[in-house]
Amino acid sequence: EPEVTQTPSHQVTQMGQEVILRCVPISNHLYFYWYRQILGQKVEFLVSFYNNEISEKSEIFDDQFSVERPDGSNFTLKIRSTKLEDSAMYFCASMKLATTGELFFGEGSRLTVL
Amino acid sequence: DQQVKQNSPSLSVQEGRISILNCDYTNSMFDYFLWYKKYPAEGPTFLISISSIKDKNEDGRFTVFLNKSAKHLSLHIVPSQPGDSAVYFCAASATGSARQLTFGSGTQLTVLP
């Protein structure tokens, strides 16, 4: 069964360093998302991406964050200068059509900022 | 801003009995509701969904009920099995919002053997 894959599964970085989290969405899906979950908190929306551009973003998704779909298969989330409070599980998700409303999530990338 | 609320952080049920997980929402623009199951250190797994034009959707042991006038939905699992033990998230989306999901805070379901 097709699935969303994410790498790395865990990344430890120093505060102020750049981090890139990678995702390969399900191949025939058109909508792509990043969510995050800080330990003990709810899953929060970061950004949605459709037709090679950001369609929506939350307040969390500030200038330190960017997304890219560089080659038609990968979907990346970059954090330019990490802060302690960026430590969280980051989930990539994809959806086939807007009419279905069903997002399929990857296993997540745990980011630890020291 | 809690547009989707799950007021019970935890629920324990005996194996074989019914589990009922509840969710309330405040945004009347939501027109699609989903339940996700999540194990520790894994991503949310889609379980079942319901459109606002329906009031019930059933898939095997899982049934979701939607009461639009009360802005309330519930997930029924019957019979409950120990493998159902996980965190269950209610989520909602609205047309025209790129279908971004707004999640509740989750309910930890424990099914006791």
What attributes characterize this protein structure?
heterodimer, A: 114 residues, mainly beta, 7-stranded mixed sheet, 4-stranded antiparallel sheet, 11 strands, globular, B: 113 residues, 6-stranded mixed sheet
SSE class of chain A: mainly beta
* Count of alpha/pi helices of chain A: 0
The total count of helices of chain B amounts to: 0
What's the β-strand tally of chain A? 11
What best-fitting shape of chain B do the alpha-carbon axes yield?
A: globular
Distance between the termini of chain B: 37 Å
β-sheet strand percentage of chain A: over 45%
Q: Can you tell me the overall shape of chain A?
A: globular
- Main beta sheet of chain B: 6 strands, mixed
> On the 0-100 scale, what is the average pLDDT of chain B?
93
**Oligomerization state:** heterodimer
Radius of gyration of chain A: 13 Å
Residue fraction in strands of chain B: over 45%
Q: In total, how many beta strands of chain B?
A: 11
Percentage of residues in helical conformation of chain A: under 10%
Distance between the termini of chain A: 37 Å
Can you tell me about this structure?
The complex is a heterodimer of chains A (114) and B (113). In chain A, strand 7 (65-68) and strand 8 form a beta hairpin. In chain A, 0% of the residues lie in helices and 50% in strands. Chain A has strands at residues 5-7, 10-13, 19-24, 31-37, 43-50, 53-57, 65-68, 75-79, 88-95, 104-105, 109-113. In chain A, strands 2, 4, 5, 6, 9, 10 and 11 form a seven-stranded mixed sheet that branches. Chain A has a four-stranded antiparallel sheet with strand order 1-3-8-7, with no helix packed on it. With 113 residues, chain B is mainly beta. Helix content of chain B is 0%, strand content 56%. Chain B is built from no helices and eleven strands. In chain B, the strands form two sheets. In chain B, strands 2, 4, 5, 9, 10 and 11 form a six-stranded mixed sheet that branches. Chain B has a five-stranded antiparallel sheet with strand order 1-3-8-7-6, with no helix packed on it. The radius of gyration of chain B is 13 Å and the shape is globular. Chain A binds chain B through residues 4, 6, 31, 33, 35, 41-45, 48, 50, 55-56, 89, 91, 93, 95, 98, 101-108, 110, and chain B through 32, 34, 36, 41-46, 49, 51, 89, 93, 95, 97-106.
